[in-house]
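Narrative of activities, Objective 1.

The group set out to show that a structural description can be obtained from nothing but a protein's sequence at a throughput compatible with the screening campaign. Below is one input-output pair from the validation batch, recorded exactly as produced.
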Amino acid sequence: MPYRGETAGKGGHSDFVRNPDVQAFLAECDYMRQPSDAEAQTMASTFTTAPPSDPSQLPRYVVASDASKSDTPINDKLPSTQVGFIKVSQVLISMDSYAELVDPKSRFVDPFKAADMHRNASAITFTLPGSNIRFQGAKSVKDGFRRAVFKQLSADRTNGGGSRLALTDVLININEGDVYVGRSSSRAGQCSSCGADHEFRFSLSEQQKACPSCDEPVFVTDWLRLHEDVSDFGNNTSAMTRMMNAIEHLMMVALIQQVFSANPRSLSKMAFVMDGPLAIFGQPAKLHARIMALLHSVNRRLAELGLEPLLVVGLQKTGEVMDHANLLNRFLPNGVLRVLDDPYRYQYIKGSDSPADNFGFETYYGQDFLFKTEKGRIFNFAVPYPFADKSGDQSKFAKAKADITNYRSLISRACDLIRHFEFDLYESAIVPVALAHRHASISIVPGGKVLDIITKTGLKRSS
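Output recorded for this entry:
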């Protein structure tokens, strides 16, 4: 590691260039590469014509969400001591208002109507202790992080208006009213602070308890296991990332639950678009199964009412699937679609010789598709699995999730949504996600700089 202010030598790479072991190592590596024309044609031949466009299938309202984070040092002299900021944005787009954006006389976007659309965006912020920060006098960074997660997620985010909206309530509701913290194999749990065996059962009326052994509080949010990735001395960036991922999905679930409770029929006229895969990674991954079950129960109720299933779409702009799609793009005609079944994924994208029975078994609640629009833009989108759970034979589940007939109208409606909102400003972009990202993003300058300032000045006032 260099000293502060020390620059690297200009010839540091030469040792790698001259070392024959480096070339030998690289020669022994397999990786995703540009396919030959013959290989690409073989892959392209497996794509099918996309469902025809049907504007009548478009929803009346679209809710898009995105999230971002920033890890800010408290002091220039203490770069390893940090505070984390997370921002989750949701934007509501009325299809009628979107259709009126362009003035038919001038063919230009009306700036006042565009401004009105931006006013329908809502951002929620979360502040968490990062590396070397003890919150509320906790005995360790990890215990302070647990306290902060509970405080942030149990806060009522309605600003005093309407019914209470706390993400801890959402977490309990999708666990059918009871949450047990600890080992999943039994109701006996372990204290998140001292590790002692005790039963910690939480409900809407009781969301924290004291450990009988160490008297430290145990919280319902410990169920997410976000604190397990927190170190008293190391970098806790990954815990912030897992937190951001979990919050974004919980926010979507909260809105779906609110609309469903008020008027289930309204959900059939809405679409929810997330920036990223329909999956939860890392310690809170088990949350994905609860979301999958919730969406299935909502769709079962909509089917009873004779309505179309709820449209939830995950859009990935980057990653190995999009890398593959971009390599294959020039060989694909416009207006084609392919379900990313596990055999295709493992053979052409992941290159695994020992594939799992069901890709994403512990993390994914939605199926990936590749879609090249009639205008030539390529997208990686996902829609939720049309099943309540993944129980049973996983190889059979892998086949069922790739059977497009199980998705009813979801695939064609997702394609229509993408067609309607695709635009040229960014690669593989649609308007709702671009708007959500604009309100969720924290720029390095000036946004990141401002967070630096408020972190440092805020801590000075409290010291």
